[in-house]
Design goal:
This protein has 120 residues and is α+β, with helices and mostly antiparallel strands. 62% of the residues lie in helices and 18% in strands. A three-stranded antiparallel β-sheet has the order 1-2-3.
């Protein structure tokens, strides 16, 4: 929670009208600042509160950190899924080669057995 700050300037109307050109009244209280300035025939009034900007920056930083952490976690999850799929694919590739090797070996053995039987 941001503590409230209030800066007030009380200027009598006759003083405001006699206000010299380029003069500035400023009052600062806590994080709040009030400024009254006269430039030519125009009177400018401004109020700022620097704690609000700090709060915005704080929450922006939290947001960016959370977003970056989420993106990193998503990248890690994607890489784990990819690695899992690759290891699953390589297991079935190996099993296929093993089965083909056994069938091929049995076929060769059968042919050799037939050749030996016919020679006898």
């Amino acid at each position: 929670m941001v503590p409230s700050s209030k800066a007030e300037i009380a200027i009598p109307v006759d003083s405001l009208l006699k206000f010299p050109s380029q003069a500035v009244y400023t009052h600062h209280s806590g994080q709040a600042t009030a400024t009254v300035a006269k430039k030519g025939e125009v009177i400018y009034v401004a109020a700022t509160c620097d704690s609000l900007q700090r709060e915005v920056e704080y929450y922006e930083e939290l947001y960016y950190k959370a977003r970056d952490a989420l993106e990193q976690k998503e990248r890690e999850m994607d890489s784990v899924e990819t690695a899992s799929k690759q290891s699953s694919d390589s297991f079935f590739d190996t099993l296929y080669i093993f089965v083909v090797g056994i069938v091929f070996g049995m076929g060769i053995s059968f042919i050799i057995f037939i050749i030996k039987k016919t020679k006898q």
